[in-house]
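Tokens as discussed.
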């Protein structure tokens, strides 16, 4: 009998998430029967904690966690990796008999996405807009890429300062600065990153207008529904190198799969297989 692996995603505004498709398809390629449910607390009439506990009690192997719960769930799981503890955000949880274990595959997924498009080129000076759960992970990924300078931007200055403090504590050579205004932080930056929900289906908008982006060499958008956000469209029109949120989605997804199952995958075959209509 084929083993069944129950997985799921907890988050808001996830009706168009491709995570179910990625993991179900990975299961087919690996010879496993994988179920993967979208779990939206407000639609279920439950709190995040209630949905989390329901998944645990229902026999789920694990869950992915997305906006806006990545930071809050970190307090409810055991995190053994000191780097993930420093990030303070969790996007992957395994329900272990000894208790739920938390991981973060956003930072590794971002590093893979960046290298796929820009290779070994240093990111330079980067304007990072949004210092929430995914922003934290991307910032740590930028440290891993030996970025020369990170400008942490958030409308909440306390959040930006807290991230800056955590990054400086790593003792890297990267210069860390904080800003409350994205336009100011973008001036003279080599790369611009959106880690806010702006541009997402159901949210819309963009963290910067095209005029404010001029002069940058590359951009990345953590949003991938839709893949071509207004932010990325403006950047492409200006001739910048574009790294889509889909690349982060794919990278974090295959890393999460490995954590959930430990089963190796042909990533190229998976990438081809998940093109097309939703499962």
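Sequence:
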């Amino acid at each position: 009998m084929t083993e069944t692996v129950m997985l799921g995603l907890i988050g808001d505004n996830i009706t168009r998430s491709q995570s179910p498709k990625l993991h179900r398809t990975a299961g087919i390629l690996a010879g496993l029967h994988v179920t993967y449910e979208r779990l939206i607390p407000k639609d279920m009439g439950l709190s995040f904690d209630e949905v989390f506990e329901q998944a645990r009690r229902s026999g789920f192997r694990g869950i992915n966690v997305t906006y806006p719960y990545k930071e809050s769930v970190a307090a409810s799981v055991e995190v053994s990796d000191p780097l993930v503890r420093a990030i303070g955000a969790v996007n992957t949880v395994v329900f272990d008999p000894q208790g739920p274990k938390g991981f973060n595959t956003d930072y590794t997924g971002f590093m893979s996405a960046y290298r796929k498009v820009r290779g070994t080129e240093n990111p330079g000076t980067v304007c990072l807009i949004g210092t929430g759960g995914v922003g934290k992970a991307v910032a740590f990924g930028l440290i891993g890429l030996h970025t020369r300078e990170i400008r942490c931007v958030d409308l909440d200055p306390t959040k930006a300062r807290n991230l800056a403090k955590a990054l400086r504590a790593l003792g890297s050579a990267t210069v860390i600065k904080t800003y409350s205004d994205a336009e100011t932080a973008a001036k003279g930056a080599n790369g611009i990153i959106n880690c806010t929900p702006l541009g997402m289906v159901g949210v819309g908008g963009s963290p910067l207008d095209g005029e404010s982006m001029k002069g940058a060499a590359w951009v990345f958008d953590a949003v991938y529904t839709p893949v071509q956000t207004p932010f990325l469209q403006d950047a492409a029109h200006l001739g910048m190198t574009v790294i889509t949120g889909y690349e982060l989605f794919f990278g974090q997804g295959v890393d999460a799969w490995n954590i959930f199952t430990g089963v190796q995958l042909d990533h190229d075959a998976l990438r081809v297989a998940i093109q097309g209509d939703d499962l």
